[in-house]
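User: Let's play a game. I give you a shape written as tokens, and you guess the letters that built it. Ready? Here's round one.
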């Protein structure tokens, strides 16, 4: 049996993959669909009674994994359609991996706190154990590769690595991930979550899946492509891993409306639009890092390659409440290991960033006046936000 299939749960391997009413690709010439108990009438929002809503009518079930969409993602991510699975965001892919490969109360996953919390949540929901190997916080949040290998010596099926990492904003060297994949080949899957990769600009590990069958790469359109509301994640993995995940995937993970949006987003114009926005975010990130570093309430700004910045302050909880009162919502990350004084702020538009910076500038837990000399300069062409009295 293949080394990848040996990692999957035996009961999942024994399952027959559910066949939906739209799995059959041989529909050429079909114009009357009476096979899936659908309504023949379109919903009110579409108007009319013809049922003609282009290639994605809402009264019809969508294709579970449309061939045209897999082809576009294959071109976009420079891989093969056979190595792709489209899901409702990367979060669903995380859950599918745990569900398919971890037997409850037997198998474990490895996480590297501080990191994205859904890895542990998914494991707990499905009854898998969690082994935490903290990042080396005194060394720029570096991955503890040796510690992970020790923790994964037995009983581990999945190792999650977020790169760039959320919430620290730091990348993980590709050689570290590949070292894990090589050492754990035949023992565990190494899952590289590249949700924020576009903001870094580094090469994806997706192209290396063919060399390491136990390497899984997660991508998403939620961040760089501005499609968080459409829930679209992409798993890049060995075809046999994809086949196993298909066994536990919901019958219709994509909606007809999301397919319309994805078609536009993955067009040449859509990709150009996303790249332009990525450049805007990177420029604002540089400005935000510099401005925060000049703000008296900020003790330290951690370098970031993502669309957010992590910084330290004396009283993060109080600062977050102050910002909320000013109409600005950020995340208090001080409850995570190694981040006891940290706040995470997403990079917004220049106007939104100015509002946040102005509110931070006004913050003083001691009530002392902060001189205007430390006030950050707005971006060129940005809308200035006046301080309310």
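Assistant: Ready! My guess for every position:
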């Amino acid at each position: 049996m293949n080394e990848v299939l040996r990692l999957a749960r035996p009961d999942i391997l024994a399952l027959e993959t559910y066949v939906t009413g739209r799995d059959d690709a041989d529909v050429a010439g079909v114009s009357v669909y009476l096979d899936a108990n659908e309504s023949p009438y379109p919903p009110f929002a579409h108007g009319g009674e013809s049922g003609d809503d282009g290639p994605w009518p809402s009264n019809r079930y969508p294709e579970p994994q449309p061939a045209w969409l897999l082809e576009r993602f294959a071109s976009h991510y420079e891989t093969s359609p056979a190595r792709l699975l489209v899901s409702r965001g990367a979060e669903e892919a995380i859950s599918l991996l745990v569900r398919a490969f971890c037997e409850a109360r037997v198998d474990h996953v490895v996480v590297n706190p501080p990191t994205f919390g859904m890895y542990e949540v998914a494991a707990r929901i499905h009854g898998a154990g969690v082994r935490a190997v903290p990042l080396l916080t005194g060394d720029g949040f570096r991955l503890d590769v040796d510690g992970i290998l020790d923790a994964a010596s037995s009983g581990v099926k999945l190792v999650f690595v977020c790169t760039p990492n959320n919430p620290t904003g730091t990348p993980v060297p590709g050689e570290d991930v590949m070292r894990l994949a090589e050492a754990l080949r035949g023992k565990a899957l190494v899952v590289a979550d590249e949700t924020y990769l576009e903001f870094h600009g580094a090469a994806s590990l997706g192209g290396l899946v063919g060399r390491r069958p136990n390497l899984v790469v997660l991508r998403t359109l939620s961040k760089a492509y501005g499609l968080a509301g459409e829930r679209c994640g992409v798993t890049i993995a060995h075809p046999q891993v994809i086949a196993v995940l298909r066994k536990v995937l919901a019958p219709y993970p994509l909606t007809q409306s999301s397919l319309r949006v994805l078609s536009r987003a993955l067009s040449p114009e859509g990709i150009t639009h996303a790249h332009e926005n990525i450049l805007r975010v990177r420029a604002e990130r540089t400005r935000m890092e510099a401005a925060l570093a000049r703000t008296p309430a900020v003790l330290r700004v951690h370098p970031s390659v993502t669309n957010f910045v992590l910084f330290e302050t004396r009283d993060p909880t109080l600062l977050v409440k102050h910002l909320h009162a000013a109409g600005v919502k950020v995340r208090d990350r001080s409850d995570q290991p190694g981040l006891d004084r940290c706040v995470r702020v997403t990079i917004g538009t220049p106007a939104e960033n100015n509002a946040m910076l102005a509110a931070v500038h006004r913050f003083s837990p001691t009530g002392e006046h902060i001189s205007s000399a430390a006030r950050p300069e707005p971006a060129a062409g940005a809308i200035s936000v006046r301080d309310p009295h």
